[in-house]
């Protein structure tokens, strides 16, 4: 099975959507949460996490937004969770996301799109090391 890193972004925490979003993940058959933490991200962590986007026009506002309040970081284990949480989330732009997906149901702004989930096995390994270095 797989393991993925999920971040409930500051908008999700501010809007009281943490329970709703975690509930959707939790209800998937065979998936489980193996770590969970409320945390305010510092610049260094965000630079590591979003390094691939450095230099792009949306990078600075993205990092500022991600540091604007606490996030909920969680580790999810289970069958095809990497692809699975991305599917639950919907596409990056919430307006393009179908109703029934997290972004489609609750989002309208590209930057404030509620949730991050690792996009590949390689990203998951890299991101899990940044957020939960002690996890075995
Ligand atoms: P993450 O899970 O947060 O990594 O989202 P993603 O994988 O769906 O998108 P991507 O990694 O390409 O971009 C990271 C984040 O930058 C997105 O979630 C958006 O918040 C923001 N972002 C990406 N593309 C754009 C864009 O074209 N405009 C703006 N304003 N923000 C963007
Ligand atoms: Mg991404």
From TrEMBL:
It is an enzyme of class 2 (transferase). Pfam families: NDK (PF00334). The active site is at 116 (pros-phosphohistidine intermediate). Transmembrane segments: none annotated. Its EC number is 2.7.4.6. Residues 1-136 form the Nucleoside diphosphate kinase-like domain. Keywords: ATP-binding, Cytoplasm, Kinase, Magnesium, Metal-binding, Nucleotide metabolism, Nucleotide-binding, Phosphoprotein, Transferase. It catalyses: a 2'-deoxyribonucleoside 5'-diphosphate + ATP = a 2'-deoxyribonucleoside 5'-triphosphate + ADP; a ribonucleoside 5'-diphosphate + ATP = a ribonucleoside 5'-triphosphate + ADP. PROSITE patterns: NDPK, NDPK_LIKE. SMART domains: NDK. The keyword Phosphoprotein applies. It is found in: Cytoplasm. Gene3D superfamilies: Nucleoside diphosphate kinase-like domain. Its main location: cytoplasm. Belongs to the NDK family. Homotetramer. NCBIfam families: PRK00668.1. This is Nucleoside diphosphate kinase. It comes from Streptomyces paludis. The gene is ndk.
């Amino acid at each position: 099975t797989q393991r993925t890193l999920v971040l409930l972004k500051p908008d999700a925490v501010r809007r009281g959507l943490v329970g709703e979003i975690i509930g959707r993940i939790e209800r998937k058959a065979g998936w489980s949460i193996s770590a969970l933490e409320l945390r305010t991200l510092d610049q260094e962590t965000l630079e590591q996490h979003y390094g691939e986007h450095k230099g792009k026009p949306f990078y600075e506002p993205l990092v500022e937004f991600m540091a604007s309040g606490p996030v909920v970081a969680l580790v999810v284990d289970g069958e095809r969770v990497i692809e699975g949480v991305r599917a639950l989330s919907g596409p990056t732009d919430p307006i393009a996301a179908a109703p029934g997906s997290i972004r489609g149901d609750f989002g309208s702004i590209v930057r404030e799109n509620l949730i991050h989930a690792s996009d590949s096995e390689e990203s998951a390994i890299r991101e899990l090391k940044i957020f939960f270095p002690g996890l075995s």
